[in-house]
Structure formats: C-alpha cells, structure tokens
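Render this sequence as a predicted structure.
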Amino acid sequence: ALAPIQETMRTALPFSDHQMALLQGPALALPVVVAAVPLGLAIDRYSRVRLLLLFALTDLVGSALTALAPNFALLFMARCLVGLSAAVISTGVISLLPDLYPAAQRGRAKAVLAVGQYAGIAAAFALGGALAAMFHSVDGWRWAMLGMTAPLVLALFPMLIMREPVRTCVATGNSSSRGAMAQLWRHRAVVAPLLIGIVVVETAIFAVLTWAAPSLARGFALAPDRIGAIMATALMVSGLVGPIAGGTLADCCHRQGGPRRTMAALGLLGLLGVPGGLFTVVPGLAAAIGMLVMFVTAGSA
C-alpha cells in the first residue's frame, strides 16, 4: 500500500530516498529474518487459521500506525509489523495448500493465490493513486493510507469462519528448533539453491514494485492518479497472465519431468524477466510500460 503514495509521502515529511528505501526494504525484511524459525515452528505446531487471523489483525495495526506515525522511528516500527504479518500470512497459506489439493493440482492452486496477491497490489496502486490525487494537503498521504487500510477490516470476517484442515504430507512430527535445523541441513542440496534463487528473484521483484512508481513520476512527470492507473493496469494484466501460465506450467512439468523439469522452467522464466527490468532506461512511456509488464509477468509466473 505504501508504494503508490511513497513519492507524495517522501516530499511531505520530508524523507530522503535512502529513508524510503529503509521503510520499503529492511523494515519489512528484518523482523522476518529474526523471527523466521520460531514463526515457522508455530505454523507447524498450531492452528494456521488462527495464526492467519492474529497476523491479519497485526497487519491492520501496522498499516494504521503507518498512517498515524509522527516520526521515522515509529514509522519504521509500523512497517516492521506489516512485514512480519505478510511473511506469516504467506507462509501459513502456502502451508495449507498441500492439505487441500493433491500434488498435481498445487501449481494451479498457487496460481489462484498469486492472482489474488497481484490483484491486491494492483488495487492498492489504483486506490492509492486516486486517494493521493484527492487529498491535496500536506497530510494527504496519511488519509490515503487510512483509506487503503479499511479493506483489511473486511478481510477479517471470512477468517472467523475458516476451519483448520487435517495436516497431510508430514515428514516428521513436531520437532525442536535444533531438529528443524537438522532437517534443513539434511536437505541442504535442495534448500540452499532454492533459498538463493528466491532471494535473488524477490530482490528484483520488490525493487521494481517499490521504485516503479517514483521512476515513472520522475522520468515522465506523471501525476499520482495516472501512475496509479498505469501500475494497476500493468499489475492486473501481469498478475493474471503470469500466475495462470506459471501454475499450468508447474503442473505440466510435475507430470512430465518432476522437480528437475520444474526447476528448468523456473530458470527460463527468470532469464525472460531480465530484459523487462530495463524499463526505467528506455525512451517512451509505452515502451517502459510494456517492459514493466514483461518483467512482472515473468516474475509472477
């Protein structure tokens, strides 16, 4: 939600690009790095549905504090709550998938989740851009942020009626932190390359999602509402085409060649996204948007 209004927010406070980068990067990532193992153990041991509800509430609090924070320190803490919540929610949802779908359908099931995720990002850009253009005061970004926080309240109600499914595909019972680390070390030949790949790809994706709007604003002198509309459209198209193509490809690779073929397809998609990352340096708005769509489509796939 912060991305579409960050340029307005930066000039209003005022913050430097470095401070905005801290809010959009380390503030979201540091609590996850610190708490990853205990949170993973909690997801393994306790009701994932209840954890989703708890951290959806935490996300709501962090988002509201983002709008109300009077200084950088409190704003940083608010974004830490949002980053921690997002990590737990995404991990918990992915943990639920094997209990709800057989292996041959999980790629498409994950595609549905990814479509929802990118639809949410697109909606944030559209709503954030419109609200930022609507409120012209110095604190207009705060009202825009509060406006984007409101849908989180509605998201709580479906979680209240969700039920925890029976766990399947469990390799071992509940283990200690030492036991969990031993399991990771035993499968390091698989876990390490996946971890490195995820870090590299997610760094690129989040860098683009964070800086695309400011880049378009500064490079093409666009108003917040137009940037919001452009980003929303680009993300909606990419977030629909990419996950559907990626989910179908994953299931196809699983049936025909197993994990090895799936990883080969992942590598190819990563390479296809590289040219799209140059969207900020091409002349012409249409070309920049086209390359942005190419990048996000490959990344979401």
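Summary. The radius of gyration is 20 Å. DSSP finds twelve helices and no strands in the chain.
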